[in-house]
């Protein structure tokens, strides 16, 4: 049963729920340092349209849809990190609405409030709603797509027209593929969901699904071709040095992020509450043969298999794909709460949400989430002598993080020289982000000119990463500096960043 738009007290309650979700996502939104991926968002979104949709789309392993959205969003106001992160914040908050509608339409009672509050307080969702990256926007598109998928399957069950919902589902799945490659797996999970929901009429569901997937392919043909081109390429950015997680490692990561983020000692309690609610949901399915619950269970199982399987080929994606397991999980927990005896509903829902609230508070207590460019800027300001240049050997995008934090504290931004790594992405980025500061290791001495000392700014990485020439040019830069008579004077470290002070080489 599809209900109408909420009114009166329900509307006020939803507004309050959205307000809570917004409040927890605004905490430290402007104060956290601009980490590498966010600097890449700023840098790529500032490029010309033909570069974003052309050369950069071919070099970057992720489709260009989010960079297009970031460029349009920046045009409305500015490209400050607060404004860019607000796009993710609003997408994260907005995703609660389709989740609420799904739980209300198919489970009723307390279910929509449990599902909405679970998403509002889930630390994994909050974390990715505060990054100037694509994941919160993709989650919103996925939630709306799931609403369309549920209505498609319900129409098939009733024998009603399903093509409008099929077209909408196809458009949303196509938009998802433009945002990120994992949307292909999400589309597969949504297909499983529809077939499981309409299992008694699965043959009638086939044609609407064919239409939906054809629309998706038509909309997303360009990013899909790019995704196929990247599959199996040995030089995919950042994948060569990440060890694919085993099943136990993946299970631990799921537990830390889905069950009880940042709780640790309380994890068994949080897991126990979730298992009780999941058992309640399955009991409700057994009693009523609720096809929606069965479809959600199939979708959850499919996601739990597809996403870890994909991480064997693209291990860098594992922690981010967890976000998409959150959607069917939240709805199943809500269905389980609605299926409990009346006296048990309130304590079970309260325990679930209390654990999530503790988890999101733990997330906000983490002092530095990525790279501490604010601290690096402060150290450079205190130690730098006028005229000293800064050499960047990891990525030209680092110049964005560093210069913006120097500007924020009122310091003068020094001359920066970039020696980009060998990867196609970094070479292309350097030509557009720092066209006047570009150099190679062999010509670094001449590029620096007559200076006595300089700073080499690096991101902190494990040894396999630091040894990868596609990821960093640090070895070539250090070799060039030492060959010219340069000497390492001092090393300063802050979380995620290393500052090396060198005497300049003699040309």
Describe the protein.
By secondary structure, the protein is mostly helical. It has two domains: 8-364, no CATH class; 373-503, Rossmann fold (3-Layer(aba) Sandwich), CATH 3.40.50. Helix content is 65%, strand content 6%. The chain has 25 helices and five strands. The protein has helices at 8-26, 36-45, 49-52, 55-59, 65-76, 81-94, 96-106, 111-121, 123-128, 135-158, 163-179, 183-197, 202-219, 221-230, 247-259, 267-288, 291-311, 318-339, 342-364, 373-383, 398-408, 424-433, 444-448, 463-466, 474-483, and strands spanning 390-392, 416-418, 453-459, 487-494, 497-503. The chain has a five-stranded mixed sheet with strand order 2-1-3-5-4, sandwiched between helices. Strand 1, helix 21 (398-408) and strand 2 form a beta-alpha-beta unit. Helix 1 packs antiparallel against helix 6, helix 15 packs across helix 18 and helix 16 (267-288) crosses helix 19 (342-364).
Q: What spatial order of strands do you see in the largest sheet?
A: 2-1-3-5-4
Number of helices, counting only DSSP H or I runs of 4 residues or more: 25
The number of distinct β-strands equals: 5
Relative helix content: 55-70%
Q: What ranges have pLDDT less than 50 throughout 5 or more consecutive residues?
A: none
What is the SS-derived class?
mainly alpha
Termini separation (Å)?
A: 77 Å
As for the number of domains, it is 2
**What is the N-to-C succession of helices and strands?**
HHHHHHHHHHHHHHHHHHHHEHEHHEHHEE
Shape: elongated
Q: Hey, roughly how much beta strand do the residues contain?
A: 5-15%
User: What does the average pLDDT come to?
Assistant: 89
- Give the biggest beta sheet: 5 strands, mixed
Radius of gyration: 25 Å
């Amino acid at each position: 049963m599809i209900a109408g738009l909420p009114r009166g007290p329900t509307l006020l309650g939803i507004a309050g729920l959205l307000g809570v979700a917004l409040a927890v996502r605004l905490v430290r939104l402007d104060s956290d340092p601009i980490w590498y991926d966010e600097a890449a968002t700023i840098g790529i979104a500032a490029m010309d349209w033909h570069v974003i949709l052309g050369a950069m789309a071919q070099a970057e392993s992720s489709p260009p849809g989010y960079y297009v959205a970031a460029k349009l969003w920046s045009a409305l106001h500015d490209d400050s990190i607060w404004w860019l992160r607000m796009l993710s914040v609003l997408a994260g908050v907005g995703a609660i609405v389709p989740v609420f509608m799904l739980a209300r339409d198919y489970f009723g009672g307390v279910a929509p409030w449990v599902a909405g509050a679970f998403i509002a307080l889930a630390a994994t969702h909050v974390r990715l709603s505060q990054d100037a990256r694509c994941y919160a926007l993709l989650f919103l598109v996925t939630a709306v797509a799931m609403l369309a998928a549920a209505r498609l399957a319900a129409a098939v069950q009733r024998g009603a027209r399903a093509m409008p919902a099929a077209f909408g589902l196809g458009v949303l799945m196509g938009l998802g593929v433009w945002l990120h490659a994992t949307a292909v797996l999400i589309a597969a999970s949504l297909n499983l969901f529809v077939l499981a929901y309409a299992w008694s009429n699965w043959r009638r569901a086939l044609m609407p699904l064919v239409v939906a997937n054809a629309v998706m392919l038509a909309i997303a043909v360009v990013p899909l071709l790019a995704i196929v081109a990247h599959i199996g390429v040995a030089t995919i950015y950042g994948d060569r040095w990440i060890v694919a997680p085993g099943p136990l490692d993946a299970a631990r990561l799921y537990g830390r992020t889905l069950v009880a983020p940042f709780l640790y000692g309380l994890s068994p309690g949080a897991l126990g509450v979730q298992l009780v609610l999941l058992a309640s949901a399955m009991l409700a399915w057994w009693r009523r043969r609720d096809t929606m619950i069965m479809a959600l269970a199939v979708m959850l199982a499919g996601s739990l298999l597809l996403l870890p399987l994909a991480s064997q080929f693209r291990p860098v994606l594992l922690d981010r794909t967890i976000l998409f397991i959150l959607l069917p999980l939240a709805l199943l927990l809500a269905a389980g709460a609605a299926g409990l005896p009346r006296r048990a509903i309130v304590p079970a829902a309260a325990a679930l949400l209390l654990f999530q609230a503790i988890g999101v508070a733990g997330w906000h207590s983490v002092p530095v989430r990525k790279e501490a460019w604010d601290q690096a800027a402060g150290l450079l300001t205190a130690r730098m002598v006028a005229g000293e240049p800064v050499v960047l050997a990891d990525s030209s995008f680092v110049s964005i993080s560093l210069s913006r934090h120097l500007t924020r504290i009122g310091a003068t931004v020094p001359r920066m020289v970039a020696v980009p790594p060998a990867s196609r992405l970094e070479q292309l980025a350097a030509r557009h982000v720092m066209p006047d500061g570009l150099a190679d290791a062999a010509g670094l001495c001449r590029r620096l000119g007559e200076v006595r000392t300089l700073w080499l700014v690096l991101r902190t990485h494990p040894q396999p990463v630091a040894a990868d020439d596609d990821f960093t040019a640090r070895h070539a830069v250090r070799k060039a500096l030492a060959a010219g008579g340069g000497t390492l004077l001092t090393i300063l470290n802050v979380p995620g960043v290393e500052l090396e002070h060198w005497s300049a080489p003699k040309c």
